[in-house]
Write a structure and sequence with these properties.
With 471 residues, the protein is an alpha/beta fold. It is built from 15 helices and eleven strands. The longest helix has 35 residues. The chain binds pyridoxal-5'-phosphate.
C-alpha cells in the first residue's frame, strides 16, 4: 500500500469510526450470531494474490460487524466495562503508526519516560504514597502474577527463581471467596500450587473477614506452612465489595506477609477524594493494580501496576543477556525487567491523551455520574416489591433479582436466568450474572463511557416489563 493509498483509506476509516461512535446505539449490544457462523464465512485459505483494501473493508462491515459485541454501547451493563473514548482511539492510531517496541529505554526513550511520568500522575491521582513506582502492564492478571512472583521471591530470600519451588517449603496465599479468578491462575502458574490458595470466608457485605484471615494464617504457621502473600480486593468482580485494607494490612505487617491489592475496576474511583477511604491502610500495601482499560476511558490494554519497592520487582524478573546490555543501564527504567513480556507496546501515549483531554475534573465528573446512576438504579429497584437487592452498592455495580412471591428458590433462579437471556437476546441491553449465597443474581454495571441516566431508566423499564411478562 502506497502512502497515497494509505491516506485515502485512512480518511475513509476515520469517517466510518466517527459514524460508529455516533450510531453505536443502533447495533444490538450483544452479538446475535450462532457459534461457527463467522468462522464459516471466512475463506479456509489465505489469498495467494494481493487483494484491494476495499474488499477487506467490505468484509469487515459485512462479515465481522455482525459478530461484534458492542462494548461501547451505552446499554452495555455486563461484566466490567472495557471503555474507550475518542482521545484514546486517536492516540492508539499514533502508537500503531509508530509501531515502536518499547522493551528498554533505548528502544524509545520517550515511551519509557512518558510511562514513568504517567505512572506518577496516576499514583498521585489515586493517592498512593509517594514511594510507589508504577509500570504499565497488559492486564491485571499479569500484574497479579508479578505480585505473587515477587512475594514468592521476597519470602524465600530470592531462592526459588534459582533453585526451583521444591527448595521453598509449602508457601501459602490468601484471598477471599469473592476474589477474581486471576489470583487462582497466578498461584497455579507460580509453582505455589492451587491447593495452597486459602479462600477466606466473607462477611455479610461480601468483603473478606480479617478475623478469619488471621486465624487461617496462624493455623497454617503452626502446621509449618509459609504464609507468602495476601490478596485483598477493592471492588470485587461479583458485587464490588471492598475488603478492609487497614485490618488486613495490620495482619500482614505484623506477620511479615506481602499485601497485594487488586483494584482492577474500583481503582479508578480512587480519583474521587470521597472514595479514597477504600484504600485506608495504604501504608501497609506492597503492590496495587488497577485497570485504566476498564473504567478510565483508555482502550484495552492498559493496566497500571504499582509497587512500594521496585527493586524487589526488578530482582524477580531481571535477566541480562548480552544483546540487551546498554550504556544507560541503571540510569533509566528498562521496563522489560518490570514484568513478564520482553516486548512492550507504547501504551502511555493513550493514557496521556485521555487524561489531558478530560482533565482531572472531567474524569471525576464522569466517574461520579456513573456511581450516581448505580445509586439511582438501586433506589428504583428497592421501590418495586417484586424485586430484591442482593448486595450493597459500593461503586457502579448493582446486584439484584426478580423475586415475585410464591416461587421457590430454585424456581426463582430459573426465572432470573431466563430473564437474563431474554434481555440479552433482545439486543437492547446486555447484563451478566453472578451467584450470591446460591442465588442467581443479576448484575448491572452503570459505568460505560456513553451511558446516561436516561439509558439506565429505559433499561430498567425494559427489565421490569420483561420480568413481569415471564410470570
Ligand atoms: C477484571 C478484573 C481482573 C482481571 O483483569 P484483566 O486486566 O482482564 O486481567 C482482576 N481482578 C478484578 C477485581 C477484576 O475486576
Amino acid at each position: 500500500m502506497t502512502p497515497e493509498e494509505f491516506r485515502k483509506h485512512a480518511h475513509e476509516l476515520v469517517e466510518w469510526m466517527a459514524d460508529y461512535m455516533e450510531n453505536v446505539e443502533d447495533y444490538p449490544v450483544k452479538s446475535q450470531v450462532a457459534p461457527g457462523e463467522i468462522f464459516n464465512r471466512i475463506p479456509g485459505e489465505a489469498p495467494l494474490q494481493p487483494e484491494p483494501f476495499d474488499s477487506f473493508l467490505k468484509d469487515f462491515k459485512e462479515v465481522i460487524m455482525p459478530g461484534i459485541t458492542h462494548w461501547q454501547h451505552p446499554d452495555f451493563y455486563a461484566y466490567f466495562p472495557a471503555n474507550t473514548s475518542p482521545p484514546s482511539v486517536l492516540a492508539e492510531m499514533l502508537t500503531s503508526t509508530l509501531g515502536s517496541q518499547c522493551m528498554i529505554w533505548e528502544t524509545s526513550p520517550a515511551a519509557a519516560e512518558l510511562e514513568e511520568k504517567m505512572m506518577i500522575w496516576l499514583r498521585d491521582l489515586i493517592a498512593l504514597p509517594s514511594e510507589f513506582e508504577g509500570v504499565i502492564q497488559d492486564s491485571a492478571s499479569t500484574a497479579t502474577l508479578a505480585a505473587i512472583l515477587s512475594a514468592r521471591e521476597k519470602t524465600t530470600g530470592f531462592t526459588v527463581n534459582n533453585d526451583g519451588i521444591a527448595s521453598a517449603g509449602t508457601l501459602r496465599v490468601y484471598c477471599s471467596g469473592q476474589t477474581h479468578s486471576s489470583v487462582e491462575k497466578a498461584v497455579k502458574i507460580s509453582g505455589i500450587g492451587r491447593k495452597n490458595l486459602v479462600k477466606i470466608p466473607v462477611r455479610d457485605d461480601f468483603s473478606l473477614d480479617p478475623v478469619l484471615l488471621k486465624e487461617a494464617i496462624l493455623l497454617d504457621k503452626s502446621k509449618g506452612y509459609i504464609p507468602c502473600c495476601v490478596i485483598a480486593t477493592i471492588g470485587t468482580t461479583g458485587t464490588a465489595a471492598v475488603d478492609p485494607i487497614r485490618s488486613i494490612g495490620e495482619i500482614c505487617h505484623e506477620l511479615g506477609i506481602w499485601l497485594h491489592v487488586d483494584g482492577a475496576m474500583a481503582g479508578t474511583a480512587l480519583i474521587l477524594p470521597e472514595f479514597q477511604w477504600m484504600l485506608d491502610g495504604r501504608e501497609y500495601v506492597d503492590s496495587f493494580v488497577f485497570n485504566p482499560h476498564k473504567w478510565m476511558f483508555t482502550n484495552f490494554d492498559c493496566t497500571a501496576y504499582f509497587v512500594r519497592d521496585a527493586s524487589t520487582l526488578i530482582k524477580t524478573f531481571e535477566l541480562l543477556p548480552e544483546y540487551l546490555k546498554t550504556r544507560t543501564r541503571g540510569i533509566v527504567n528498562d521496563y522489560r525487567d518490570w514484568g513478564v513480556p520482553l516486548g512492550r507496546r507504547f501504551r502511555a501515549l493513550k493514557l496521556w491523551s485521555v487524561i489531558r483531554s478530560y482533565g482531572i475534573e472531567g474524569l471525576r465528573e464522569k466517574i461520579r455520574s456513573h456511581i450516581s446512576f448505580a445509586c439511582n438504579l438501586a433506589d428504583m429497584i428497592k421501590s418495586e416489591p417484586d424485586f430484591e437487592m442482593l448486595a450493597p452498592v459500593s461503586i457502579s455495580v448493582v446486584c439484584f433479582r426478580f423475586a415475585p412471591t410464591g416461587f421457590s428458590e430454585e424456581q426463582m433462579n430459573a426465572l432470573n436466568e431466563k430473564l437474563n437471556h431474554q434481555l440479552n437476546d433482545s439486543g437492547k441491553m446486555y447484563l451478566t450474572h453472578t451467584s450470591l449465597n446460591g442465588k442467581y443474581t443479576l448484575r448491572m454495571v452503570t459505568a460505560q463511557t456513553n451511558v446516561t441516566m436516561e439509558h439506565v431508566k429505559r433499561a430498567w423499564e425494559l427489565l421490569k416489563d420483561t420480568a413481569r411478562s415471564l410470570e
